[in-house]
Design goal:
The protein is mainly alpha-helical.
């Protein structure tokens, strides 16, 4: 019985890998050999990128009712992962089954089997959240330069729509990717405000939302938009410098909180899997459950206090 189960697990792993690889690489199959960043090589590539964000009726999904957009769909778009929500759920379920089979082969039916299955299900979600956060930080870090590029283009006599080309050509990803998509939306007939607001909803960046708000107000009431954008870019740079100083000053406290939180958890897990007889009384005795619950509560409270003390608004 062991060998067929192992073969099934290996086949499932290969299937999941092929699905993920094929879905992600399909968008890059027609790319040319030369390095072209966010230029959307062909019109079919542009249409495919826009199709994923448009309904079958032609109405932009981001302008439609908010109830029709799940939080998972928002995270996938923001993380730039070319998977639909149901495809991502398939990946989660497949990894959960795969690790569950591994736990079943190693430990049999029991708590370990469920732990492995839960880890397999949460693994893709953790990757999604980490990728989304990393991409958002990259986007926010490039916003001051982006606003300066738009301001310089407008000083040269270009409109807001034309200045998006300067951002696409001179900025790096992910900013160049998103602004190129916004520029293509405008070329296909969308208004500047609609394209920029769609980009805000795709990315979820507060700095981008502030810039779009400034541009929208200026187009309604007028004003010196290049000067406002330059001032806003300087303010964002000063804010990031202050944030970096605070992070450096609180690095030791945050590291201490992380180590103190993970140390007993990692130790308990290792003892449970390596020396089960030594740790088993904590799980079979009611007093052990009370002690574990009290310890978890104290860890949660201490970690929460440290996070509140070192939080940056």
């Amino acid at each position: 019985m062991g060998i067929p189960i192992i073969l099934v697990a290996v086949a499932a792993a290969i299937g999941v890998g092929l699905v993920v690889y094929g879905t992600v690489s399909s968008q890059r199959a027609a790319a040319p050999q030369q390095q072209v960043s966010a230029s959307f090589r062909t019109l079919s590539d542009v249409r495919e990128q826009l199709r994923r964000r448009f309904d079958t009726t032609g109405t932009p999904a981001w302008i439609a009712s908010e109830q029709r957009i799940s939080s998972l769909q928002r995270d996938l778009v923001s993380a730039d992962i070319e998977l639909r929500p149901y495809e991502f759920r398939i990946v989660q379920t497949s990894t959960a089954i795969l690790l569950g089979i591994v736990g079943l082969l190693r430990f049999g039916i029991g708590l370990e089997f469920l732990v492995f299955a839960v880890i397999g299900y949460l693994g893709p979600w953790l990757y999604l959240r980490n990728r989304r956060g990393h991409r958002l930080r990259q986007f926010d870090a490039g916003m001051p330069r982006t606003m300066e590029l738009i301001a310089n283009s407008m000083k040269a006599g270009q409109s807001v729509a034309q200045s998006l080309s300067a951002v696409t050509d001179n900025a790096g990803p992910p900013i160049s990717d998103e602004f190129a998509l916004a520029r293509r939306e405008i070329e296909l007939g969308a208004s500047v405000e609609s394209a920029l607001n769609n980009m805000v909803k795709r990315i979820g960046s507060n700095d981008l939302r502030l810039m779009v708000m400034v541009i929208t107000i200026q187009r309604s009431v007028g004003g010196d938009l290049p000067a406002i954008l330059v001032t806003l870019a300087d303010t964002m740079r000063q804010r990031e410098e202050m944030r970096a100083e605070i992070l450096a000053a609180t690095a030791q406290s945050r590291a201490t909180a992380l180590i103190i939180t993970l140390l007993p958890i990692v130790t308990a897990v290792l003892l449970y899997f390596i020396v089960q007889d030594y740790f088993r009384p904590m799980l079979v005795n009611p007093l052990g459950w009370v002690m574990l619950g009290f310890a978890a509560l104290l860890l949660f409270i201490g970690n929460l206090i440290i996070r509140r003390l070192t939080a940056i608004v």
